[in-house]
Structure formats: C-alpha cells, structure tokens
Amino acid sequence: MAINYIKRYNELLELNHLNERDRKISLKAIFDRDIADNQNFSFNSKIIRPLKKEDKIDVESLFKHLTYKTEDETDNKGKVIQTRDFFDFERSKRLHWILPHIESKIPDVINVFSAINRIRGKDIIRTYIHNVKENYIIILEPQRSGQDYYFITAYYLEKKYGGLNMIKNKYKNKLDEVL
Fold first, then answer.
1. Is residue 113 assigned to a domain?
2. For a 10 Å CB count at each end of the chain, is N or C smaller?
3. Is residue 35 part of a domain?
C-alpha cells in the first residue's frame, strides 16, 4: 500500500494484489493528499472544487467518480439503468496523475482547450486537459462566476467509450480561449 503513495507520473499504481478494503485505503490516501486536503488545488489560477450535491461539497462522490466507472445494468423489469458500482482499475491506477497534470508538470504533449457540450438538454462549457501520449483526460467545468472550476472527472481514454475520437472531435470544435 505504501508503495503507491510514492509513485510518480507516469508510473501506474499497484492495485491488483490488494483486496477491496486495502485498495480503497491506498487510493483514498492519494486522493486526500492530492485533491481533498490540497489547499492549492487550482488550474489557471482558479480553485478546483468538487461538485455540490444538495448545497454540500461532495468529496466522496468525486472520489468514487475517479475510481469507479458507469456501466449499464438491467433491472428485474428489463429496464436498462446506469450504475457507478464497478471498480475501474484503469482510472484508479492513474489517480496520482491528476495533480501533475493540473500543475502543468508533465513533459508530454498536453492539449488544453474548452468546448461546448450538450448535457441533459443544455449547452455546458467544459475545459479539457488531454495528455496526447498517455491517452489521459481531465475534465473541468468553469463555474458560472468564472472564478473557479468544478472537477468533473479524469480517466484513461478507452476505445469502447469513444476514446481518442471523441476527444479529437471536441478539440476540432474547441472554443477560441480556455475558460
């Protein structure tokens, strides 16, 4: 477990040998160090905050979002529902990559851009930090005030979820400035 705490970009965390409890402890320590307890967690001089849920900052949901993936399940009536109950090794092995990307301390080619996304019937601006070499993406959403960001997610780009083509399309339609 302690070995994961000292891993650096672009090493991968060692999780396969850990049971669920130890895996969570290891990942939570990294998450707390880099994100939850980091008073200087900011990008482009704007503070990054977790989304609010019922007017409360929801750090636990952000942790789950960064370590679990959404999958479609069928309920007992045959209806397809989405659930975020599946541990995602690919996301989790790269959890410690978030901070160096946010701090722009990566030697790889990084594309930073903002684009408009259609989400639940609304146009939403999102800012992307895309590591071209590692196929890794971090997604932030500017707050309405323009002063801070909401942290949306970070993950390894997998082909079955749109992968690189999805990001290339967003990059083609990028805004003129990073918001």
1. yes
2. N
3. yes
- Residue 152 belongs to domain spanning: 2-172
Taking the C-alpha atoms of 126, 132, 138 and 139 in order, what is their torsion angle to the nearest 10 degrees?
Answer: 10
Pairwise CA distance, residues 154 & 174, whole Å: 19
pTM reported for the whole predicted model: 0.89
Reported as a single tens digit per residue, the pLDDT across 114-123 is 999 988 889 9
N- to C-terminal Cα separation, the chain: 37
Q: Tens digit of pLDDT for each residue in 18-61? A: 999 999 999 999 999 999 999 999 999 999 988 766 556 678 88
At 70 the three-state DSSP class reads: strand
Within-domain flag for 178: no
Count structural domains, the chain.
1
